[in-house]
Amino acid sequence: MTSERSDLLPTSASLAHRSAQTVPWADRLVDGFLAHWLALLLTAMLIFVGIPFLAPLFMAWGWTRAGELIYTLYIPFCHQLPQRSWFLFGEKFTYTLDEIARVYPDTDPWSLRFFYGTPEMGWKVAWSDRMVSFYAMTPVFGLIYAGIRRWRPKLAPISGRLFLLALLPLALDGGTHMISDMIAGISSGGFRDTNAWLALLTGNAFPGFYAGDHYGTFNWWMRLLTGLLAAWGVAFYLFPWLDRLLARERIRHREALARRQAT
User: Fold this and answer.
1) Which residue has the higher pLDDT, 254 or 146?
2) pTM, whole model, 2 decimals?
């Protein structure tokens, strides 16, 4: 029924070829947005999540003020703790708090976020590792959805239950980290810093895997995997849902336009 109605309405091509007097610029603008909303949204999201990766690049190039500006602008969106961040252009990809303390002895959590790196260690990305896997990967999964949509235009959103299940591991991992940090302090030996409970459950089968936040540890993998799962859930629930909503809105907009033109 919807497809039969839409066949009788003006197409994007026909709207583009009519004069501004027949089709006001505002109507063309609205129709264009409703037709290309996903591309516009993903472009904006990719720019937003990509800028933090420019911070270490600018610092490595010696553009210190530009790099520090990015770190400062993204403070409201991420804690930027260096022991939970990725470093580029240096000796290692991640560093422990003890390694950072050798060159930056102030371990106060607020002060730590202002440690950006050194020429030898490299420079941190202005996202923490969790935000890289969640924030940055959401538009990437959005691009995958956009590709699938080209040959399956009526792809349905995942169920609300599956969406919540995809978010649950992120909530549990982030929530237990927050509780641990509140009780013992950030990276100060809390139950999510040592993960002694996991070592006990597994008989300490993987020494070096349990404690810390650096690359290869349990915490590092959990932040990566739970962020990826949540990003997938957001992309394949919200984007198809918005697709259906805005497709219906586009039909209503064209119907209103057709009625105005008929009078």
Assistant:
1) 146
2) 0.83
